[in-house]
Amino acid sequence: MTERVEADGARWALVFIRELGHPPQEVWAALTEPGRLSQWAPFDAGRDLSRTGDVVLTMVDGPDRTDTAATVLRADAPRLLEHTWGGDVLRWELEETPGGTRLTLRHVFDGRDAAPLYAAGWHICADVLVKLLDGVPVGVIRGRDAMDHGWEALRAAYEKSL
User: Cβ–Cβ contacts within 10 Å for residue 116, how many?
Assistant: First the structure.
C-alpha cells in the first residue's frame, strides 16, 4: 500500500497504489463493468465505463441515492481509465507486473483537508475489490456502512500519515 498527496495545479491529488494479484484485464473489468463496479466502488455506473462519453455515477449510502454527472475522458483498455466524478477527476492506471497488476488511482479534488477522508474510503473499497477479484466477495461497503468497517480509524491514521 502506498498513498501520498501532492499539489495538482490549484487542486490536490491523492495518489493511491495497490498491488493486485490479478492480470490487468480482470482489474479493468472490475473498474468498468457496472455489475462488477457496483460490488466494490462507492458508486454505481449507468453504463459500462470502457468507452468515452457522458455517464451517470450514482453515489449509494444505505437507502440514499445521489446521481452525479460524470464523463469518461479516456478509456484505453486495459491500461488507463480516466473519468470525472462530480468536480473530481479519477485516473486509474493499470500496469502489468510479474505478480499481476499495479493499480494507481490519482484522485484530483479541491481542499487538501479531504485527503484523509478519500484515502480511508478508497482503502476500504480497495480491500473489497481484492476480495472480489480473489473470488470471495464480501459485499460492497460504502457510505455509512464503512463506519462499521474501520473507516474512522483509517481516516485518523491517514490524517497523521498524509
Answer: 21
